[in-house]
């Protein structure tokens, strides 16, 4: 039972990290695309790459943190 609980915590950590990272990545990607004057439809590609990259990295780290925290006994 504890394993299922730990797995659900890690999954929730990855999901929350991906959502927060995606939101931050979208805002940051939009800002950078406007700042560097990325032309035309390349803005959408640039914003998408920034969003997915940020979501993946933040989700990975929040999932790893949840996994580390899952092993602690209080």
TrEMBL record:
- The organism's superkingdom is given as Eukaryota
Q: Which PANTHER family match?
A: REACTIVE OXYGEN SPECIES MODULATOR 1
GO CC annotation: TIM23 mitochondrial import inner membrane translocase complex
**Residue intervals passing through the bilayer:** 12-31, 51-70
The listed locations are: Membrane
**Pfam families reported for this sequence:** Romo1
* BP GO annotations: protein import into mitochondrial matrix; protein insertion into mitochondrial inner membrane
- The scientific name of the source species is Corchorus olitorius
Q: What is this protein called?
A: Reactive oxygen species modulator 1
* Family note: Belongs to the MGR2 family.
Which controlled-vocabulary keywords does the entry list?
A: Membrane, Transmembrane, Transmembrane helix
């Amino acid at each position: 039972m504890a394993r299922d609980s730990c797995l659900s915590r890690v999954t929730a950590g990855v999901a929350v990290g991906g959502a927060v990272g995606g939101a931050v990545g979208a805002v940051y990607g939009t800002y950078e695309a406007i700042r560097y004057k990325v032309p035309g439809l390349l803005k959408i590609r640039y914003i998408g790459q920034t969003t997915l990259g940020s979501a993946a990295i933040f989700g990975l780290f929040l999932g790893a943190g949840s996994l580390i925290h899952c092993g602690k006994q209080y």
